[in-house]
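User: Could you check the structure of this?
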Amino acid sequence: MKATTIFAATLASLSWIVQGCANYKFCHCYDDNGMPNDLATNIICPGNLESRTEFGVTFKECHYYKNYFFLYSALENCDIRRRCKAAGATGADSSCRDKVE
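Assistant: Sure, the predicted structure tokens are below.
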């Protein structure tokens, strides 16, 4: 029983590895009702806001990607999640797409 508890605790503490952080070209904030939060997205966006429609819902999405020869600057999803919450979004996560490899 003790080994099972330790194993479960270890798995929980390492879950961030599975989720991981990555860089994306587009992100937006969500509220806990599942709807995009345009105000929070506007606050956190270092780039351009663009309109996007998914499943009949039109919302603002932040687009940011700069390429500097062999380096690039993009939106990091873990940072965006924290910034969305700080800007007032109530959702548990943000939404990002177009991963930069």
